[in-house]
Design brief:
mainly beta, 55 strands, about 900 residues, seven-stranded mixed beta sheet
């Protein structure tokens, strides 16, 4: 929601409240009102509680079904009220609930009077209704790109929200759509016995609490695991711009797999429902849950505490407007959606939406990995929720190191407690020792995460283990809860000091620092296989110039490299940027840097002066013998709309259009067993989302998951992929200001579009050079076009993507800058764009907010004459088109 729209609507609420005080004698609330009927007109009935099966599923003359659990009133007589003039045209199509014409008209009126709050859709449909007295809570979905028969599912959804209706004494309905001032006023009038104050707050977008994403828990039973779906991050459906992941299980609790019990990842009230008689999808706050079995709690306004059980998940294959799946009879999964903010946190793990990997401390996991839901959600006690982070990762004796760890409060109340620690000892040399650096009070709010970072030096080399022991006070230490994570011991290595040469009069040389970076020079210690890695070390030579051998070694990842150089006087930096092998195994590796000279042979070994540092690599895991996983079928369309004809094959075929995020290769990671059997297991999830699946929806569910067995089966694996890594410059962005951006990357062959990747995240180095990766591509020759958020598209020519390799392209020349000025995203700079940016220039320096950030061309957080000048310099004709 845009900030300025919220302010405008809040002012509208205040004005409407004043009008209400002046009109107390009138029986109706201000809003979209349907007037009394003309005399003699026969009333039409309202039917609530019945549903239509998914469109196209019934033959002529077949009756609709009545769903259990909903209120089933007798047909209520209501007059046909003539409507207020609609502001925008609204086309309704049959939904999952049958309603009378007067209710449908009232919903249409409410939607037509909310053009700023409800995105323009081709059609709208009602997906669920809650009826209480004279109130109707109507869940509505906005749809696009329907077939001629108007069949729909949530693949077609671009918006989903709530319309609130009230019937007056004359039988006429007053309605308003969410995110309007009228909705807030009407919601305030709902009796407390129907909606609690908390539920009203959760349902009103102007009052809804901001989501505390770091406080989310995994939505399944603590102590059990679910598997991360093989398509990783994909479009969520329902809500435009949202993303989703799938987590699945076979319910085998004996193997530690989660039972079919979906828990609330955060506290909140249901604000949207889709129910088609087969499965239920709901929204609570900024989270979407799909594929639930119906129960009476899954209705608008019902409140769940974090960790409360919401219901069971539907297993086996099913199909409906609100979701579908092809999966084994005993398998089930949750389609879990959230806003696209670049990252998502849950259960102490952070998901990067670009590379689709989950990270916690130094651990990284990808698709097909199993995730354990740790204790939390019902206990108010905080606990350590991240691995120990030691910086530097392998300190030397007497070197000061910082020890960071996070404490999470998964409960519903703020807790103040004392944290005693860290405590540790160095057992290898037998000296032992215990130290207690500090004891301090720490407050962790409900659903919050607090980072604690004490520092100290270490007296001995060897393995050190640190225990963090929280306590409520000095007398009550939580020593009896190791299984729940309150007391955690983690170890790291302390090294002996790096030897330095005995100084001589002419040759006083030392290696000062050894470190690793990414290809752009940004410090980094964790890399993916196939990624460029910068290896660096700094040398001080306080004497005269000296001839030496310079040596790099990362065994066994990279072959040693040795060079003969002259070491100048003063300080110098030495760098090498090789590419890690694409088949590198995951693990920790040592980078050794050395200089050798005859002056240093005597007191030291053959490497002379040397120093090391460690880094980690996340490599490809062994490919299990499995049934075929998903492959992408290229479809030449530049949009995110799925174009494949719906089929129900047991293997998901991923199209190249719906998901436009930079994705990793689809090779499954290690799962609990090493073999697979030909038993039915889940494939693509039929969920109403715009993701790459073989049918109408784009909720890709993991490919077949291993079932415990010792029977090996040979199956094909995914073909190797290629990666494109590029550097670009944006006009107006320099070294002083360089905010992160997202771009659209288009791949073409000739005049045909092969693939389009939306929202590719690019980050800048200190010089304003932006770098972005696009992994998981089919090898071959492509023409690459890139378009920035407020920039004209630029054609960067042809590239050759090679199987299993990263192709690096440097497009930072002065004649390759991505030009600014396309603010309406039509790839043309014209008078409309100039008018848009000039409309923002209301003062000499206009502060930037989320609503106007696109006009901050130079990224310095203010809109001023410099931004205008940059765009004006490009406005050389009535229309300046970008490349096609």
């Amino acid at each position: 929601m845009k900030h300025n729209r919220r302010i405008t609507n809040l002012l509208a609420i205040a004005l409407l409240l004043l009008m209400a005080l002046l009109l107390l004698a009138m029986p109706q609330v201000t809003g979209v009102s349907l007037a009394r009927p003309d005399p003699g007109v026969t009333p039409r009935s309202l039917t609530v509680g019945s549903t239509k099966t998914p469109l196209g599923k019934k033959g002529p003359g077949e009756s609709t079904e009545t769903l259990p659990g909903l209120m089933q009133p007798a047909a209520m007589s209501a007059p046909v009220c003539s409507s207020v003039q609609a502001q925008t045209e609204i086309a309704m199509v049959p939904g999952t609930v049958a309603v009378g014409t007067e209710v449908e008209d009232a919903v249409s009126q409410a939607l037509s009077h909310a053009p700023d709050a409800v995105p323009a859709a081709d059609y709208y449909a009602i997906s669920a209704i809650r009826e209480e007295d004279n109130w109707l809570f109507v869940s509505v979905v906005g749809l696009k790109d329907l077939d001629a028969d108007l069949t729909w599912n949530l693949d077609n959804a671009i918006w989903a929200g709530l319309v609130l209706l009230r019937q007056d004494e004359d039988g006429c309905w007053t309605g308003a759509a969410e995110e309007t001032a009228e909705f807030s006023l009407l919601l305030a009038d709902v009796p407390e016995n129907i909606l609690s104050a908390t539920a009203k707050q959760d349902l009103d977008p102007f009052q809804r609490p901001l989501a505390t994403t770091s406080g989310y828990r995994f939505p399944w039973q603590s102590g059990t695991s679910m598997q991360y779906g093989s398509f990783g991050v994909h479009n969520a459906g329902f809500f435009s711009g949202w993303k989703a992941v799938d987590f699945l299980s076979d319910g085998n609790t004996g193997a530690g797999h989660a039972p079919s019990r979906l828990l609330a990842a955060a506290s909140g009230s249901i604000s949207y429902v889709c129910w088609d008689g087969t499965s239920v999808a709901i929204r609570i706050g900024d989270l979407l849950y799909a594929h639930l079995l119906y129960n009476s709690n899954l209705t608008i306004g019902h409140y769940f505490n974090q960790g409360d059980e919401m219901g069971q998940l539907r297993s086996g294959s099913f199909s409906g407007n609100c979701g579908w799946a092809d999966q084994g009879a005993n398998w089930f999964h949750v389609h879990w959606g959230f806003p696209n903010t670049g990252s998502f946190e849950a259960g102490g793990w952070t998901l990067n939406l670009s590379d689709q990997l989950w990270r916690r401390g130094g651990e990284t996991r990808g698709v097909n990995s199993w995730f354990l839901a740790e204790d939390g959600g019902t206990s108010p006690d905080p606990k350590q929720c991240s691995d120990l982070i030691v910086s530097p990762s392998s300190p030397q004796v007497n070197e000061t190191a910082t020890l960071c760890f996070d404490v999470c409060n998964y409960g519903g109340e703020s807790i103040t407690f004392q944290y005693i620690g860290p405590q540790g000892h160095a057992p290898p040399n037998g000296q032992g020792g215990l130290w207690n650096e500090f004891a301090r009070n720490i407050t962790v709010g409900a659903g919050q995460r607090v980072r604690v970072c004490p520092s100290r030096s270490f007296e001995w080399d060897g393995t050190w283990c640190i225990e963090h022991v929280p306590s409520r006070d000095q007398d009550e230490v939580w020593l009896d809860l190791p299984a729940n994570g309150y007391r955690q011991a983690q170890c790291f290595e302390v090294r002996k000091p790096t030897p330095t040469p005995t100084p001589t009069t002419a040759h006083n040389v030392a290696i000062d620092r050894v470190y690793t970076t990414d290809a752009a020079g940004t410090p980094k210690t964790a890399f993916n296989a196939g990624e460029p890695i910068g290896l660096h070390f700094d040398v001080s030579n306080l004497g005269s110039p000296l001839s030496v051998y310079r040596l790099w070694s990362v065994y066994p990842l990279l072959p040693p490299r040795e060079e003969y150089i002259v070491l100048p006087s003063g300080q110098s930096t030495h760098s090498w940027t090789p590419t890690l092998p694409s088949d590198a195994n995951s693990g920790s590796y040592e980078f050794l840097a050395a200089i050798c000279s005859s002056y240093f042979w005597e007191p030291y070994d053959c490497y002379c002066l040397k120093r090391t540092t460690n880094f980690t690599v996340v490599g490809p895991t062994s490919t299990p013998t499995a049934t075929p996983t998903a492959t992408r079928t290229k479809t030449p369309t530049p949009t995110r709309t799925a174009t494949s004809t719906p089929t129900k094959t047991p293997t998901a075929t991923k199209t190249a259009t719906p998901t436009r995020t930079a994705t990793p290769t689809q090779t499954p990671t290690n799962t609990p067993t090493k073999t697979r059997t030909p038993t039915p297991t889940p494939t693509a999830t039929k969920t109403a989302t715009s993701t790459p699946t073989p049918t109408r929806t784009a909720t890709p569910t993991p490919t077949k998951t291993p079932t415990p067995t010792n029977t090996p089966t040979g199956t094909p694996t995914n073909p190797p992929r290629a990666t494109l890594s590029f550097k670009i410059r944006f006009q107006g962005i320099g070294a002083d200001h360089h905010p992160d951006k997202t771009v659209r990357v288009t791949l073409k062959r000739g005049s045909s579009i092969v693939d389009v990747f939306e929202d590719v995240r690019v980050t800048a180095d200190i010089n304003g050079i932006y770098n972005g990766p696009v992994p998981n591509l089919d090898p071959g020759n492509y023409t690459v076009l890139i378009k920035g958020p407020a920039h004209l598209q630029r054609n960067f020519g042809e590239v050759n993507l090679i199987t299993g390799q990263t192709t690096e392209e440097d497009w930072t020349g002065d004649d390759q800058i991505v030009l600014a000025g396309d603010f309406d995203d039509n790839n043309i700079l014209n008078i409309v764009d100039m008018s848009l940016i000039l409309s923002q220039y209301t003062a000499l320096s206009v502060p930037v907010n989320e609503a106007n950030r696109i006009y901050d061309v130079d990224g310095n957080d203010v809109i001023n004459i410099i931004d205008i000048a940059v765009v004006l310099a490009n406005y050389t004709a009535l229309e300046v088109p970008g490349d096609e």
